[in-house]
Structures are given as structure tokens and as C-alpha cells.
Write a sequence for this structure.
């Protein structure tokens, strides 16, 4: 029996990494009876049936700490949300959607602003300040700046991180810099888009040094958050949290209600205009989606 990490599942086979060796495994029928589907990211126990051919059987799925829905990966620790400071221009509304998704999955979050070699600091300072004061950790990177890559790599050590962000911001480029053995495809947008459209891309765990794992997700240009309950949305804005107890009504949506803590926080500069307007836009979207 060996313990390993399930790194991908394709066509009924599970690929399990045991100390860097990959075993192609079937799952025991017993999982079906118990309605358990092994998931990428699971810690599993396998028995090796053929050492030479690296084949085995998944005997047991160890208890999951967490389970992401999209991408479907177990035991993820943190989300690295990557945006470029330019090319493409940062889309704040989309960034807030990624944040809410990660918050709703209860992940630790790092915002990574990439391509800082392309513009002056003044260009992205406002964004950095806005998210830092909202309570987020923001890191600045450029594939041309080795120190920034080392800093990013440090944040990945001994964790499972999901890389998310729009297309073309440099997710694969950064991962290739962090670990040059990876050789992920970069910059071939047409090819990647074609794949995204016509085939389902399965989530896959990629090992980088010292028990660090990453999931590179395809880029998204739009994200729906309408599965979130309108009453819960404000919990996913961390800077709103200290304001909420000052709302007079427990069911305050922080819109037109009197004595609202969030609007007070907005006046006092504890909540930024832009984040508040993101909130309003999203709650409107959630409400509209409920009408049908
Ligand atoms: N100047 C500059 N260009 C970068 C940087 N990082 C990535 N790029 C370029 O940006 C383009 C897109 O990079 P990718 O790594 O393919 O972007 P991605 O986020 O993986 O894109 P998808 O796979 O479509 O989601 C490539 O041409 C990279 O060379 C950076 O730090 N600075
Ligand atoms: Zn309120």
C-alpha cells in the first residue's frame, strides 16, 4: 500500500503521484457502492498491481479537507488570482467576481498583479491600495523580474494553489518561471481558445518543488456569481465585515436602508467607492437572475 495524491482523472483512470512516480489506477468498485468519486487533489491509498508498468488500484480516499466546485479539486489551500496591470487592462468588476468566488469557497487569497514591467508604478498604485486596504494580500510580479518570481514561489511552498484569472494575464508564464520544468503552453491564445471551446478541459494538479502543487485553470472572461445568496454577498467583501454590526437591520442589504454600517464605512473611507459599486452591481445581478 502506498499513499499518494490524485493528480488527474481521465477515461476511468486515476493518475496518482507517489513521491514523484505516477501510477495509472482503477478505483475499487466499492467506491461506487458508497457513492464516493475520487477527486483530483484527493490524498489516496493505492495498492500497486504492476510496479514495472506503474499500475495500481485506488483502495481508499482519505478524508477531504476542502472541495472546490469549479474547478473540481479537493484539498486546495489558496487561490492566486492573477490580473495584468495592462495587456489586458485590469477589469475590476471581473477581479471582484474572482474574489467573491474564492471567498465563497473559503480559500486563502492572494491577488497577483502581473506584467508590472510594462507600466509605471503610478498606473497600478490605486488598485494595490484599494485591495490592500480591503484586507487582501497583493503581490506584484513580472516574468522579467526574478525576485518577484522567487517571492511568488515562496508563497506556493507546501500548499495547493489554484491559479485563476482572465486569459492572457500570464498565469502559465508565471508558473513556467516558478518551475522551468513545467513548460506550460503560453501565448498561443487561438489554440487554447479552440481547446476550451470544443473539449472539456479537466482539472489537473501539477507538482512543483517540495510538496507544492498548482492548478492552472483556463482563463475566464466572464464569471457568474448568481449562485450566491443575496443575503450572503456582503460576507464575501472582507472590508464590509467590521461595518455589518452597525447596520440597524439584521437583514440590511446596504442599499436604501437607514442606519447602514456599510454606507457609514463608505462615508468614512473604510469602504472604497469602487468596491461598494461592485457590490451594488452584483446584488442587482443576483436579484435579476432570481426573477426567471
Ligand atoms: N511584458 C510581460 N509580458 C508577460 C508577462 N507575463 C506574461 N506575459 C506575456 O503575456 C502573454 C500571455 O501569457 P500566458 O502565460 O499565456 O497567459 P495565461 O494567463 O496563461 O492565458 P490563458 O492560458 O489564456 O488563460 C504571453 O505573450 C506572455 O509572454 C510579464 O510579466 N510581462
Ligand atoms: Zn447595511
Amino acid at each position: 500500500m502506498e499513499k499518494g495524491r490524485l493528480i488527474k482523472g481521465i477515461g476511468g483512470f486515476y493518475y496518482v503521484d507517489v513521491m514523484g512516480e505516477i501510477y495509472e489506477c482503477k478505483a475499487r468498485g466499492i467506491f461506487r457502492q458508497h457513492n464516493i468519486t475520487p477527486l483530483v487533489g484527493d490524498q489516496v491509498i493505492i495498492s500497486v498491481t504492476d510496479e514495472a508498468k506503474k499500475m495500481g488500484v485506488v483502495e481508499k480516499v482519505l478524508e477531504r479537507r476542502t472541495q472546490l466546485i469549479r474547478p473540481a479539486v479537493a484539498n486546495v489551500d489558496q487561490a492566486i488570482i492573477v490580473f495584468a496591470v495592462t495587456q489586458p487592462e485590469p477589469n475590476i468588476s471581473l477581479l471582484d467576481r474572482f474574489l467573491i468566488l474564492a471567498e465563497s469557497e473559503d480559500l486563502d487569497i492572494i491577488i497577483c498583479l502581473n506584467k508590472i514591467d510594462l507600466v509605471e508604478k503610478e498606473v497600478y498604485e490605486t488598485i494595490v491600495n484599494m485591495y490592500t486596504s480591503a484586507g487582501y494580500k497583493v503581490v506584484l510580479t513580472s516574468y522579467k523580474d526574478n525576485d518577484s518570481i522567487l517571492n511568488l514561489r515562496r508563497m506556493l511552498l507546501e500548499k495547493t494553489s489554484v491559479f485563476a484569472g482572465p486569459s492572457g494575464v500570464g498565469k502559465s508564464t508565471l508558473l513556467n518561471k516558478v518551475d522551468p520544468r513545467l513548460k506550460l503552453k503560453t501565448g498561443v491564445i487561438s489554440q487554447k481558445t479552440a481547446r476550451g471551446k470544443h473539449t472539456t478541459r479537466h482539472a489537473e494538479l501539477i507538482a512543483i518543488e517540495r510538496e507544492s502543487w498548482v492548478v492552472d485553470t483556463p482563463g475566464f472572461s466572464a464569471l457568474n456569481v448568481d449562485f450566491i445568496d443575496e443575503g450572503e454577498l456582503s460576507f464575501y467583501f472582507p472590508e464590509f465585515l467590521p461595518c455589518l454590526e452597525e447596520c440597524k437591520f439584521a437583514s440590511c442589504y446596504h442599499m436604501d436602508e437607514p442606519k447602514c454600517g456599510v454606507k457609514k464605512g463608505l462615508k468614512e473611507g473604510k469602504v472604497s467607492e469602487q468596491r461598494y459599486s461592485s457590490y451594488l452591481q452584483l446584488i442587482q445581478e443576483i436579484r435579476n437572475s432570481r426573477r426567471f
